[in-house]
Amino acid sequence: MAPPVRPRVFVTRKLPGEAxxxxxxxxxxxxxxxxxxxxxxxxxxxxxxxDGLITLLTDRVDEPLLAAAPSLRAVSNVAVGYDNIDxxxxxARGIAVGNTPGVLTETTADFAFALLMGLARRVxxxxxxxxxxxxxxxxxxxxxxxxLHGATLGLVGLGKIGAAMARRAHGFGMRVLYFxxxxxxxxxxxxxxxxxxxxxxxxxxxxxSLHVPLTPETRHWLGRAELAAMKPGAMLVNTxxxxxxxxxxxxxxxxxxxxxxxxxxxxxxxxxxxxxxxLKLPNVLLAPHIASASHVTRGRMASMAVDNLLAALEGRRPxxxxxxxxxx
Length: 328
Ligand code: DGY
Description:
This protein has two domains: about 10-105 and about 295-325, NAD(P)-binding Rossmann-like Domain (Rossmann fold); about 105-285, NAD(P)-binding Rossmann-like Domain (Rossmann fold, 3-Layer(aba) Sandwich). It is about 35% helix and about 15% strand. The protein has helices at about 20-25, 40-45, 65, 85-90, 105-120, 125-130, 160-170, 185-190, 200-205, 225-230, 245-255, 295-315, and strands spanning about 10, 30, 50-55, 75, 95-100, 150-155, 175-180, 195, 205-210, 235-240, 260-265, 285. A seven-stranded parallel β-sheet has the order 8-7-6-9-10-11-12, sandwiched between helices. It has a five-stranded parallel β-sheet with strand order 2-1-3-4-5. Helix 5 crosses helix 7 (about 160-170). The chain is elongated, with a radius of gyration of 22 Å.
């Protein structure tokens, strides 16, 4: 008897940990080995004959790709965000979509808080100052920064990562406000948070940290008007998606000195072009989209993505599925 045909899977990058080894024992696996994402035409070609795809947020899964992949049954994104995937188009074709929520919550909040502290206390500037040989004496006015304790942190979004950020801020003696569609009374009671409207959040926050997914509603949520409504000298932290902020308006607000600074792990576009005006601003701290980048967390994300894919290929609902209605 002929052996059962194994599903064919294309993975758009090497992943850390044991997950791909495990996947390779169950499917016909092809992995794109380069550091950089597969070019669009390669992705279209590879998708043509596969049953499953493991994608990253750098891979666009849209109608043209789905049209080129008639046997595709599952797309598993190695990220909690899935704005790179046209989920509606996948659902219309009965293709399950998986993501990796939960495992990166604390890791991402750690990094958002690191950015907040680094920005407030000018850690990167201080390092550059010492390395440049500019440290000549202790000075009472050298590299003065902003206090965190007693300051107000405004959270845009209070999902898992927003809540983890609120816990950290509470531990550091900050007053925490949040803006969210949903009230979280238990968290309010536990951490003394206050749910406020957008205007209050912008007017009262010394630091604003973004924790919303990118959707049509959150695109440019922080625009010119909102930036103008922020407290003078306030600082922005973004570990969500670059497009949640109108970046041109942000550059203006920073250049005019209306905002005190910004720490951005995400930008529009990514990678940030070397001629971006953000790179010329001293009060901007930049990172290359690494908030979830710990050894442990990236290994867990890969493993979860493999679990999601294998479940969908077996006709089961993936443990973390963004279009669960397919399995009703
Ligand atoms: C995500 O998971 O959406 C992040 O942006 C990458 O960890």
